[in-house]
Amino acid sequence: MRSESLDPEGPYRALQTRKAGLWAAPLLLTLCAIPFGWTGLAAPLIWLSLYTIETTRGWKRGLSYLAAGLLMLVTALGLLPGAARIELLPPYTDGAGNSIYANFNVGKAVIAIALVAFMLRLRQSLKAVDMPYIAAAVMIPLVCAAAVLGTSAKFAMAIVVAAAINLLVVCVSEEGFFRWILQRGVENGLGRWRWLAVPLVTAVFTFLHTGWAASATALALVTVAGFCYSLLWCLRQNFWGCVLAHWGVNLLHMFLLPYPIAG
User: Where does the CAAX prenyl protease 2/Lysostaphin resistance protein A-like domain lie (predicted)?
Assistant: First the structure.
């Protein structure tokens, strides 16, 4: 069963009713260049690519998915000028080997800003029926991780700040890429075989986390989490639900489990 919060024509209809001030959002997003330099100029381009996806059909829409995905990848990977990480607080470390950094990737921040500016126009919302699915997508990876790694409870202001950054920057930008662009795009191309997007996107999710997941155990746990997020999207088609599930896993990981996972 899918959520009623997204149907194939839903985003298109939502945008058609809000054509007034179409160029206001991308023009305002150029202001991202002030704090983020050249990387900030990716924000209006990402917004426009998202708009094009929802307002075109056929090969033009497929090309728009490709353009948006490549632009997000280049931005997130720090390939644009001015993409250095920004540290807000000194990192949290302890004798148990935990190390949590309160900093953020400028590229992902730019992607997140563009995504939020765009998604607010669609007014997609969470529904009560989505919550059990989200809870399952959070608990399954956490139970698996706790069983393998054990627990490591901790609390510090740096962790609180890191958790906020994780929601606003990491989860929004990553779910925007993996779910709204990659998984939707693959589903659009596969038609009645759209369920194959779940393992395919899970594999991409795992591959792009190999720099963070430095051991077979870490990769296995990342795969479990990625599968849960992909399946959640397949079942509910709710962007904010996937963001919430992703953040739930990362939040509880930071506060309750060893972080990062030892290599």
Answer: 159-252
Of 115, 126, 111, residue with least CA distance to 238: 126
Q: Please name the residue that has the structure tokens 């997020």.
A: 229
Give 206-230 pLDDT, tens digit per residue: 999 987 767 899 999 999 999 999 9
Say how far apart CA 254 and CA 95 lie, in whole Å: 15
Question: How far is Cα 94 from Cα 183, in angstroms, rounded to an integer?
Answer: 38
Question: What pTM value is reported for the model?
Answer: 0.92
Query: Helix 106-122 and helix 58-76: axis angle, to 10°?
Result: 140
